[in-house]
UniProtKB/TrEMBL annotation:
GO terms for biological process, alphabetical: carbohydrate catabolic process; fungal-type cell wall biogenesis
Region span, Disordered: 589-632
Start and end residues of each Aminotransferase class I/classII large domain: 223-468
Keyword terms, alphabetized: Glycoprotein, Glycosidase, Hydrolase, Pyridoxal phosphate, Signal
InterPro entries listed in its UniProt record: 6-hairpin_glycosidase_sf, Aminotrans_II_pyridoxalP_BS, Aminotransferase_I/II_large, Glyco_hydro_76, Mannan-1_6-alpha_mannosidase, PyrdxlP-dep_Trfase, PyrdxlP-dep_Trfase_major, PyrdxlP-dep_Trfase_small
Glycoprotein keyword on record: yes
Protein name: mannan endo-1,6-alpha-mannosidase
Leader sequence residues: 1-18
PROSITE patterns on file: AA_TRANSFER_CLASS_2
Family, per entry: Belongs to the class-II pyridoxal-phosphate-dependent aminotransferase family. Belongs to the glycosyl hydrolase 76 family.
Residue stretches of biased makeup (Basic and acidic residues): 615-627
E.C. no: 3.2.1.101
Organism: Verticillium longisporum (Verticillium dahliae var. longisporum)
Length: 676
């Protein structure tokens, strides 16, 4: 327990008013952000409490990790608005030994009783933001921001564990905290992923980009990996795949030391199964235990003929398991799924997911339909805490009648857009023939002139994650579907919209093509958030729900931070891109480059220290980021250069969709005929 619990006293202004945000006016955005930032910082008194152990920390009911998130939000506040009012407090918090720990890796003994690996992620995001902006750090006895970010990464990556789940980092650090020491959650591993990508860009070192790719691949391979571990003996057995197909089948085989037998699909545009070739291979090749088929195909977007799948199932001598991946089946015509076939074919496993049509990629949850014997075998390998309560709540909502209605409505819109794109894309120079995709939510076209074009797979992932984020918007207003509809949000969940907003805005520095889509979602949300900041005695206190047109009576630090991070991001076009390799230079001066503005709401108490005169300096306008002749637009130079495009965005979804910071197992098995 913390030693203090301060009751926040709202300051009554001379005139009661409600905020009105003009999202097209930089001055309006800055004024509203200033007011909300002041409200957020009123929850912090660690610098004047007289208790050194509270420096940088928050009073109950808030946690140490939420303090790290607050300092990240306030670093963004200065970067976007130029208001340096709180910078001294931020520096004190981020450099206090009670937070950095003796090794300057943010593993402080003072917080061992509550320390989770995900906590390091939030403090790491703040420290990394300071490094990427050359945020001044006057005390030469404290390592540079980048050095401390590297220390955090090293602490997290050193905890990568291969004894279970073939990788991943556990949620908790110490066995003394049993609530999470035995499972690996998405937010922890998403935090490691994001830090690795940002450090790769900041240092130019490929090893960190490799770590980002490693964590990403591990998080998406779990279900495929489970089947391999159930049926295949390492260094002996093999699986059959039909390229071009989903790449994780081969990756999981390699990780598990399982061999590959490849029988290519028929040529485009059919992309059908070579049933004769497959049957011959199953008869000829020894030790093939699994045959992975993908329908609709990835990347082909084409359905496999049912009669072709049946021929594989009816193979007279092969007794292996056919795994049919139906991740995109909801975009195919009705009746295309073969899930019902599991009652007839005991050697069939049909995998589906909430990641595509339901737009819930971040929770890494799906369903496997199979026979009872295989289901028992899969469930016997399941971790004790394989699915978190928030994940279960989101899945239950998705499977409810309302959730299904939302999914079907979105699917109808997507399919209508598919028809439009089929007609319009061929009119664009450089776009050739359609090669597949008429049964999926993507289209496969020929690109006629690819000379010199880079591999944009990370950019593609970022766009897909942004598409998935639409699930968290109701009529273009950001909301928390796991708890806001029934007023059940706990303290952690009240912060999460802000993290999503932060990590939707930030990738647009590196991938400007994201910005129009991000603004479509977040600009109306920012206006609605400002309207929700109309409560309390001062009429500027922020509430939880933004889709009711005003204050809902639920105030707190999380509500302030969510509104602040959504609104201040509107200024991203006027701010400088994060610095990269060769540009980061620790600044050891004590002055601030920025303007100090008084809080919009008058105050009769000093929480932040005395006012000082400072120089005014414009940080510079936002540009398409370049360095050393390399550009992130159309010419992404390397994974270390582009990793952050997806990393900051993807990290957000690992964080947000879990619902709770105490949540989410990456190491899970799909349940039979159930989302839970």
């Amino acid at each position: 327990m913390r030693l203090i619990c301060r009751i926040i006293g709202m300051v009554v202004p001379s005139v009661v008013w409600a905020m009105s945000l003009d999202s097209s006016s930089s001055d309006s955005i800055r004024n509203v952000a200033s007011t909300i930032a002041h409200g957020a910082m009123s929850y912090y008194n660690g610098n004047v409490s007289g208790q050194p152990e509270m420096v940088g920390d928050l009073p109950d009911p808030y946690y140490w990790w939420q303090a790290g998130a607050l300092w990240g939000a306030m670093l963004d506040y200065y970067h976007f608005t130029g208001d340096s009012s709180y910078n001294d407090v931020v520096i004190q918090a981020l450099t206090a030994p009670v937070n950095t720990g003796p090794q300057h890796d943010y593993n402080p003994p003072e917080h061992f009783d509550e320390l989770g690996n995900d906590d390091l992620g939030f403090w790491g995001f703040a420290v990394m933001a300071a490094a990427e902006r050359n945020f001044p750090q006057p005390d030469p006895s404290v390592p540079s921001w980048l050095t401390m970010a590297l220390n955090i990464f090293n602490a997290l990556s050193s905890r990568w564990d291969t004894t279970t789940c073939r990788g991943g980092v556990y949620w908790q650090v110490f066995a003394s905290n049993p609530n999470g020491i035995n499972y690996k959650n998405s937010v922890t591993n998403g935090g490691l992923f994001q830090l690795a990508a940002r450090i790769a860009r900041a240092t130019g070192q490929q090893g960190y980009a490799d770590w980002a790719a490693k964590v990403w691949d591990w998080c998406i391979e779990i279900a495929i990996d489970a089947l391999l571990r159930c049926f295949c003996i390492p260094a002996k057995d093999r699986i059959l795949v039909c390229p071009p197909t989903y790449g994780m089948y081969s990756v999981s085989a390699q990780v598990n030391d399982v061999g590959l037998v490849k029988v290519p699909l028929q040529p485009a545009p059919e992309f059908g199964l070579d049933t004769q070739g497959i049957c011959d291979a199953l008869s000829r090749e020894k030790g093939v235990k699994l045959a992975y088929l993908c329908s609709p195909g990835n990347p082909t977007g084409s359905l496999l003929a049912k009669e072709d799948v049946q021929k594989i199932l009816e193979h007279p001598t092969w007794n292996g398991v056919v795994v049919l991946d139906e991740a995109y089946i909801d975009f195919a015509p009705e009746g295309s799924s073969l899930a019902e076939w599991v009652t007839e074919w005991p050697n069939l496993v049909v995998m589906q997911t909430l990641s595509k049509a339901f737009g819930m990629a971040g929770i890494r949850l799906g369903a496997a339909f199979t026979s009872e014997p295989i289901a028992r075998l899969l469930n016997s390998l399941k971790a004790p805490y394989n699915i978190s309560s928030p994940t279960s709540a989101l899945a239950s909502y998705a499977a409810s009648e309302k959730g299904l209605q939302v999914m079907r409505a979105n699917r109808t819109k997507i399919c209508a857009q598919r028809v439009r794109l089929l007609a319009e894309l061929p009119k664009i120079n450089g776009v050739g023939r359609l090669r597949g995709g008429e049964a999926s939510n993507f289209l496969l076209f020929e690109i006629l002139d690819t000379a010199g074009n880079p591999d944009n797979h990370w950019a593609d992932r970022a766009h897909k994650l942004l598409e998935a984020a639409a699930y968290f918007f109701d009529n273009k207003i950001l909301y928390e579907p796991a708890c806001e509809p029934n007023d059940s949000c706990n303290n952690d969940m009240k912060f999460l919209k802000g993290y999503l907003a932060r990590f939707m805005w930030q990738p647009t520095y590196h991938l400007p093509s994201l910005l129009p889509q991000v603004k479509i979602l977040l600009e109306p949300s920012a206006v609605a958030a400002a309207q929700a900041c109309s409560g309390g005695e001062n009429s500027v206190t922020c509430g939880q729900k933004w889709n009711i047109g005003g204050f809902d009576g639920r105030a707190g630090l999380g509500q302030q931070m969510c509104a602040l991070e959504t609104i201040q991001g509107l200024l991203i076009g006027e701010s400088r891109s994060p610095l990269g390799d060769g540009e980061i230079d620790p600044a050891r001066h004590a002055g601030w480059n920025g303007r100090r503005t008084a809080p919009t709401v008058p105050t009769n108490q000093s929480v932040f220290g005395p006012e000082e005169d400072v120089d005014v300096h414009n940080e510079g306008g936002h540009q398409d980021e370049t360095s050393g002749g390399r550009t992130t637009i159309g010419g992404l130079a390397s994974p270390s250069w582009i990793g952050v495009c997806a990393a900051t965005l993807a990290g957000s979804y690992y964080i947000l969709v879990e619902g709770l910071l105490h949540a989410g197992a990456c190491c899970f098995l799909y349940e039979t005929t159930s989302f839970l």
